[in-house]
Predict the structure.
Amino acid sequence: MIFDYETLRLIWWGWLGVFLIVFAVSNGRDLGMAILLAYFERVDDILPNISHGWRILQLWLMVLGFFLLSAWPLPGMVLLAVMKAALFFVLSAFLFRPLGFCLSARFIQRTRKFQLVLSGIALLTVWMLGMGVGIIMQGVAFEFELQSGRLVFNGLIDFFSLYAMLTAMLTLAAFLLQGAVYLQYKTVEEVTPDIKPLILMTAMSLILVFVAVGFWSFQLHGYHISSLVDVGAVSDPLQKTVKNGPGLWLDNYGHYPVLWGIPAGVIVCAAFSALLSYLNKAGTALFFSSMMLATIVLTLGVAMFPFIIPSGAYADHSLTVWDASAEAASLQTLLWVYMLFSMALLIVYLIRRR
C-alpha cells in the first residue's frame, strides 16, 4: 500500500509519539527506581528489580530512534547541534547504567556511596530530559539563512528558565511515581509500608506541578501557523508564516474542547495510582501510573501539533510536521523497512518466550 505524503508525515509523527510514550513508561520506571536507591537503606530489595533494560524493547526503541532521525532529519539536526552536551550526558548515562547496576549488585554490602552516585546520575538524567522539554516549548534559537538555507544558531540555551525547571520537576515526579509503584508491585511486603507515603506524596506533587505548568502555559508564548500550508509539498520550513503569542500552545484545545480530557486524564490517573497503591492493588496502580505518563506525552503532543521544534529566533522558521520531514519516497521506504524489522523482532521475542 502506497500512502500519500500527508499521511506518511502523520504516520511518522505518530511513531514519534509512540517512541516517547514507550520510552517514558519503560525507562521512567527504571530511572525512577534508580533515584530511589538514595531513599532506601536496603537497596538489595531494589537492585534486582531495576532491569538492565528490557533487552528486546530497548533494541526496538534504539532502532525506532534511528528511523525517526531519518524520517525527521531537520529536527534531529537541530537537537544534536543545540543540545549535544546534554544529549551526550543522557546517552552516556543510559549506556553505562547496566554496568553500574551490575557492579553495584556484585558489591552491594560495600557500596552505599556507589548507590548514591547511581541515584544522583539518574536524578540528573531525568532533570535534563525534563528541562529539554521546557526549552523546546519556549523555542530554540535557530534560523535558516535565506540565501543559502544554512542552519544558524543564535544565542545560548537558557538552562535556568523557570518554566524549563518546572517541566523538569514534572518529569521527575512522573518518573518517581512510576518507579515507586513498580517497586511496590515487585518487591517483598516489608518494603511496601515505606513506599506508600512516598507514592502518595509524589502523586500529590505531580498533580500540583502539572496544574502549575498548565496555568503557566496560558501565559507562555506559543506558536501558531497563520498562513496556508500545502501539507503535500516538499519540505521547506521557509514557506509559511507563524505567529507567536501568549497562550497559543493551548490553541488546539480551544478548537477541540474534547481534547481537554487528555490533561484531565493525567490528574485522574495519578490520583487513582496513589489510591490503588494505598489499597495494596499495586498491579492496577502500575497500569494507572503508566497511563499517567502516556497522557502527559499526549498532552504535550496535542499542544504542540503540528510543531516539532519551534524557533525562538525567527518563528517563521519553526520546524513542523508539514515541512521538516524527509521526502515522500524515503518515508515510504523507512516505513516498510521498519515494519519488517518490528515483525522480525516480535517473532524473536515470541520464540525466546517458549
In short: The mean pLDDT is 82. The longest strand covers residues 221-225. The chain has one domain: 5-353. The CA atoms of residues 37 and 119 lie 6 Å apart.
